[in-house]
Amino acid sequence: MASLSNSSLTPSRPSPSTSTPPSHRPPPPTANGDTFPFPPSHSFPPFYTLQPTLLTRHAQLAKWCTLILRYHAHHRLHRLHLSTALSTPLFHNPAIRKRLSRSSAVEIVDYMVRAEKDGGAGQRAEWINAATATGGGGSGIRGAEKRKEEAWIWWRRPEEWAEVLAGWVDRTGQKGTVLTFWELVQGEAVRGEEWAGMEEEVLARALGVLVKRGKAQVFGEEGQRGVKFF
């Protein structure tokens, strides 16, 4: 397939310059049931085939990264399961009969995982239990790729969530207060906050940052954990 120019990846609208890496931080989640507004590129068939030209491919990866982050922020999702996500509107557009391939999705998440200095999106994703492997795998999928099934999508990184939580602690006078993890994600006091309903594992990662900064202490066992803020 012939490679496409950067501008052709976004029809009817000039694309931004690729000389400066785009910001991959999405806007705050909407916290409502509004339909996610897909960008025009989502209805452009060539968007679903990663292009061979390096500069064009990098611009395409950046667009997919931004789309994935915005989609997860909108729906307040933190995990990406490739086996199911490939059939969702994020990666499949039945109106134009196009679907992203699994190998392309893995490459996009790999790009999101890499640091900016390594040509990536700045660690906006993290593979979960993806052991490094080499050699062949079943069903035509390479062994290493096959293990890349599930990933955290960091529309806010753990350290960014830590800043959000610290701001809430200061704003609501929670210093010295002991709260359970359940209260922090499901309680009345956090209703309407960005992290309401967050998976406890993501919360634990954010609180771990505050613990290292001496701003919190986590105690208890799995399912019964609590935190005290300082």
Write up this protein.
This protein is of the alpha+beta class. It has seven helices and eight strands, in the order αβαββαβαβαβααββ. Strands 1-5-4 form a three-stranded antiparallel β-sheet. A hairpin with a 4-residue loop joins β2 and β3 (98-99). The protein is elongated, with a radius of gyration of 20 Å. The termini are far apart. Residues 1-8, 10-23, 26-32 and 132-140 have low confidence and may be disordered.
Rounded average pLDDT: 83
Radius of gyration: 20 Å
β-sheet strand percentage = 5-15%
Instruction: Report the structural category.
Output: alpha+beta
Q: Specify the number of helices.
A: 7
Q: Strand-and-helix sequence, N→C?
A: HEHEEHEHEHEHHEE
**Percentage of residues in helical conformation:** 25-40%
Instruction: Give me the side-by-side strand order of the main sheet.
Output: 1-5-4
User: What are the low-pLDDT stretches, counting only 5+ consecutive residues below 50?
Assistant: 1-8, 10-23, 26-32, 132-140
Features:
230 residues, alpha+beta, 3-stranded antiparallel beta sheet, 7 helices, 33% helix, elongated, disordered N terminus
Helices and strands in order:
Elements: H1 54-75, E1 79-81, H2 82-85, E2 92-93, E3 98-99, H3 102-113, E4 125-127, H4 143-146, E5 150-153, H5 158-172, E6 178-180, H6 181-186, H7 200-212, E7 216-219, E8 226-229
Antiparallel strand pairs: 1-5, 2-3, 4-5, 6-8, 7-8
